[in-house]
Amino acid sequence: MRFLAAWRLIGVCLLSAFVWQVQAWRYGAQLEAQSAVHAQALSQQNQLALRQQQAQQDQRRALEQQLNASDQQHTQELSDAHRNQAALRDRLATADVRLSVLLDTSHCASGCAMPATAAGGVVHAAPRARLDPAHAQRIIAITDDGDNAVIALRACQAYVRAIAR
């Protein structure tokens, strides 16, 4: 009897160990499956993050190229304006060109000190008076500053438009 009880006890222990091992295998398989699903999810998240990062880098590069092109355009406009202003200043200095202003003849009819033929020229043209070359140079400098300001303002507006997109 004792012998049979000992075998039963050994059988129950072996059966328990076997069941325990089967459960351990099943649990290990579940953990492996969960690990594989988790690894796949992480891989997908990484790929998505890489695609988003690449898209952002592409957008940044496109914006930089657009801003560089805009900067070159505005630099060229500024250079052209400076060249034109320098040419105009040179022409004023060499007397190739003279600046003149229109005279208001309605006020001159009642005792104007300016002679009627101040600028000479066509008989039917409106009377004009020539400006002193120094005053003309100052006027050209003021318009040059104004041109620079307008070009700079357009550059700033283009930059803000490009960034705001």
Report on the structure:
The chain is mainly alpha-helical. The protein has helices at residues 2-93, 105-108, 133-164; strands at residues 100-102, 128-130. The protein has a domain at 68-165. Helix 1 packs antiparallel against helix 3 (133-164). The longest helix has 92 residues, at 2-93. Residues 116-120 have low confidence and may be disordered.
Radius of gyration from CA coordinates: 45 Å
Order of helices and strands: HEHEH
Beta-strand proportion: under 5%
Helix content: over 70%
What structural class do helix, strand and pairing data support? mainly alpha
Distance between the termini: 91 Å
Q: How many DSSP H or I helices? A: 3
The largest β sheet comes out as:
2 strands, antiparallel
Shape, principal axes of CA atoms: rod-shaped
Give the helix/strand layout.
Layout: H1 2-93, E1 100-102, H2 105-108, E2 128-130, H3 133-164
Antiparallel strand pairs: 1-2
Helix pairs in contact: 1-3
Short description:
This protein is mainly alpha-helical and 165 residues long. The protein has helices at residues 2-93, 105-108, 133-164; strands at 100-102, 128-130.
Throw out a few tags for this protein.
2 strands; 165 residues; two-stranded antiparallel ribbon; 3 helices; rod-shaped
